[in-house]
Amino acid sequence: MDCAKFLTSVTKRRKPSIIREWAKRFIETPNGISLANGMPNTKTFPFEEITVTYKNGIKGKLTGDELSYALQYGPSQGCIPLVKKMRELQIHLHKPAYNDWDILFTSGSMDGCNKIFEMILELGDPVMVQVPTYNGILNALAPFAPEFLEIPQDHNGIIPEIIIKICKERIRDGKPLPKIIYVNPTGANPTGTVLSESRRKKLYEVAVTYDFLILEDDPYRVLQFLDKKPTTFLELDTEGRVLRLDSFSKILSAGIRLGVVTAHKEFIKKLTMHMETTNIHASSMSQMLLFKLLNTWGQDQLEQHFNEIQRFYRERRDIMLSSIEKHLSGLAEWNVPQGGMFVWLKINEIKDVMELASKKCISQGIFIIPGHAFNYDKSKLEHHLRLSYSYATPTEIDKVLTFFDPILTSFIY
Predict the structure, then answer these.
(1) CATH number, domain containing residue 389
(2) What is the pTM of this model?
(3) Of 99, 166, 210, 317, which is least surrounded by CB within 10 A?
(4) Is the peptide bond before 96 cis (omega within 30 degrees of 0)?
């Protein structure tokens, strides 16, 4: 696949950094001596040792060269041993069907999304986005003033036939086809939908037919509640048209701020050049802590951790659904989330929920997100609320919905 045709003029003008390249080569050279880079001397840092204790009681310790690495500048693509480890993990999890792929560590998946949009989108370009979608993505797209092409969802996720219809109409009308679609396929934020297997395959076929890229933003993959793990677009990809985003925020730590882009090597090269002039690299400390964790646990312990997370959020989901059923039956409609952290609640008999969420609920100390946050056009009337079951305790969930019942009833009637 010709990656260059998807790149913006700004991206094509990016140049690699000699300083960053020399820094990477120095790290890779045994017994190398550097007078090249302005790296602060680690002897001046006020840290002697960093110790972390994992939930299974095993301790991880950073000392000596590992601590020095964690406190120092590193390669823009990512910590060299961690990049190797992550490649192995992606092969194990997704088995990419082509060879010319690579990875890049970013400061969270939102950082990766922003850099991908800047790499692909010119000002005013058409872009396909599943709707409703995460507010952060909509805000990241706004500066590009895109022609926003909405791809709606039902209980099985986005509908490929609508993409086909849009593409055919644009060809008929002589309009440019979109270069990319943004998809949050598993436990989508805010709807909790999981894109069905048949639709995943159909969407990839449509992407090949109409020659666009798929931005697969998949932070909730571990948080899915189906009997069988969904196939990822990276697994389906044979041409390098999928840019996959993984995040450690939901499965290890939100504050660690690490995400991973897996994509065709040519896209990773351009994203790395962008990283060189912005973040320089993702946190060396976070990367080293992740590397130690992956090495200490191994694949079996990691899978066990994933299973525990899945059970935890499924239980919280069921607690919230039980409370919603108890307090909001007849007042609202909802689907059972198949993954993620949210229930997408449609309030009956209300034309717009903004006043309910922003005044009635907040005045009672109840914080919920109105559906407007997940629309590109925030002025549209919205019937939906997003309720998160991820953070509140079971007692707090029931308390909120107990309070919410009379608030909603009085607001409607």
Answers:
(1) 3.90.1150.10
(2) 0.94
(3) 99
(4) no
Q: If you count DSSP H runs as helices and E runs as strands, how many of each does the chain have, helices first?
A: 13, 14
Range of the domain at 400: 307-410
The 8-class DSSP code of residue 359 comes to I
CA distances from 44 to 37, 68, 199, 239, 280 (A): 16, 11, 56, 48, 21
Residue 379 in any domain: the answer is yes
Q: Token pair for residue 286? A: 């976070």
Dump the DSSP string for 171-209. Answer: HHTTPPPPSEEEE--BS-TTT--B--HHHHHHHHHHHHH
**Average pLDDT per 10 consecutive residues for the chain, totaling 413 residues:** 92 85 79 78 89 84 89 92 95 94 96 97 98 96 96 95 98 97 97 97 98 97 94 97 96 94 98 93 94 88 93 97 94 95 94 91 90 92 96 94 84 70
Give the angle subtended at the CA of 185 by the CAs of 383 and 110, to the nearest 5°.
85
For the CA atoms of 304, 309, 314, 316, what is the dihedral angle to 10 degrees?
Answer: 140
The answer as to whether 96 is a domain residue is: no
Whether residue 344 is contained in a domain is answered as yes
Residue type (1 letter), 160:
P
